[in-house]
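Re: export button greyed out
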Amino acid sequence: MIRIEKIHKRFRRLQALDDISCFFGKGQVVALIGPNGSGKTTLIKCILGMVKPDSGQIFVNQLPVEKDPAYRASIGYMPQIGRYPDNMRIGHLFRMMKNIRQVPDNELDTDLLVKFNLVSLFEKPLRTLSGGTRQKVSAALAFYFNPDILILDEPTAGLDPLSSEILKEKIMEEKKKEKLILITSHILSDLDDLTTDVIYMQDGKLVFYKDINTLQQETGEEKLGKAIAHVMKTEKREALWIDEVLADKK
Amino acid sequence: MLKLSRYVLYDILRSKVIIAYALFLGVITFSLFSLEDNESKAILSLLNIVLIIIPLMSMIFTTIHYYNSYEFIELLLAQPMGRGRILLSEYGGVAISLVTAFWTGAGIPVLLYAFNPTGMALLFTGTCLTLIFTSLAFVTAVRARDKARGIGMALLLWFYFALIYDGLILMILFTFSDYPMEKATLALAALNPIDLGRIFIMLKMDISALMGYTGALYKQFFGSAQGILFTTAIMLAWIIAPLLIALRMFRKKDL
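Workaround output, generated via the alternate export path:
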């Protein structure tokens, strides 16, 4: 569904993406992991057409992304930091998006709206929302149009444990519907039961792209966090970062 | 596209600044017309206000609005919608609100008190200047990611067009005063929409008789259909060219 070919992107002195090529297909849940500033968000923004790569091409459903923006109708995107117009109310935001996307009411997925109890907050202006509620709005919006591709950038960051569980269950459900889901997260334990494939990025390079079974076999570790740690330690690639991640969990 | 502009308009109306602007223009125009018994004199005073205030307000309002809608633009970018459409909707929303404010504030009194060619020329110039400086402001706002820098650039542009450019023209005229400069001045004026607007309106007034030979020459030119066409074409070019530049930059930008 998404094919990435030799993407390069440079921001002044920083090589944000360095020759990235990969393919994501139906039914995959891909975990994009790597230290801060390794290019995960830039890669996502390239897929969405927000960042224009210096060279290389991206195809979504066989169509190059820079040609026609219509491909974004099949993508639901949850940004790392959801920023919304200050003056707008939650209900107004959802009505507006519905109006823009032109999806009939019976195809809308209001599951998260209901479960996060956002309907009762419909009259609240977006600027008054707390970070967690904002995340909930972003999540509900990403799933709202029932897209075939979901791109979730740090979905569980800032959510309380209960909401985080709700979101994970929702992702599980969508996974069963054979959708393609891309997730970046630093909380590796959240990704444990979800992911089918793992991409590890560092300094804009794709270090490896493996499916979870291979990874577990190669490392002999059951948990994603430990498996990654194992790889990192044997390959001596910024082992410090993975120590930090594992320490956070304890 | 209009669908999106509607949301932009809604957002602008909520901030009420545009309503205050319309009221401000209204109060000034009405008081000028009631203070001056000669409506031509009132138009002359109004002209100076229009030529200074409209470009300033259009530029500052547009730049600040653009930076405030950054979140909105970000949100739309992840939707199935081209960048050109997003920027044009923003432009549409801002331009419609500024032009409407100008017509309610200054347009209605002018139509009531000075329904003549001079009044019409003033309204035409005011509308064009609003659209032109909104376009120019989009260039600076899209160009500079930093808010302070964007607004600073907009202000500098305004200084240039409203003040510095006239000084430069005077200097040129002074240096080359021995040569016939009529045609050259006309060309120079076309390079600044504010000057072009000023000449266009002034020559519709009686006072142009005081400007001697040059005035007569201009009056002949601007009074003709050809002159009106020329002014309209130049004004249109000033609206479209910066907007196209802004669109090009916006399409290539990383957001």
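Chain A has one domain: 2-216. The button fix ships in the next patch.
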